[in-house]
Sequence to fold (175 residues):
Amino acid sequence: MNSSDRIAVQRYAAAYNGLSKTKEQASVRAEDLRAAAKALGAVGEYMNSPRITAERKKQTVRAALSRAPETASFIELLIDAKRYALLDAVTLRVDELLDERLGIIRAEVISAQVLSAAQQKETEEALSLRYGGQVRASFHTNPSLLGGLEIRCRGELIDGSLQGRLAKLQEELTH
Fold:
């Protein structure tokens, strides 16, 4: 994505987010946009085809999103501005803005083995203390870590994996 598109994504997401006065409204609108992006993703080839007129695409959007007219209008705006291809990126940014409104911090936790529910909760609580907010983590596995955790949060990498420790030790011994 080029810088012009990144700026457009920021602006469209901010405008869509700005339609909501309350956290509850923002949550509902973000969910509507996620559902719309998913539904329209199923007809992505049609929506991205240069052979289909903008009016026909907008009719498709209105029909698919009859229960979310504000979201349909927003997507129609993207179509008119020839920015429909940015819908997925705008949706992700709207979710980030919602997290900011709700005080939620996202983290990615990678472990060698699947963590139990108790371990996941304990990890989120420890991260919440570290970052000073409510942390919601997505948990993944990577057996090559051998043990420990690798955590990505707010642009920071915390490498507490056995693989990472061994790599550090090897580097110290060779230098």
About this structure: The chain has two domains: 3-100, 104-174. The two ends are 39 Å apart (CA to CA). The longest strand covers residues 104-111.
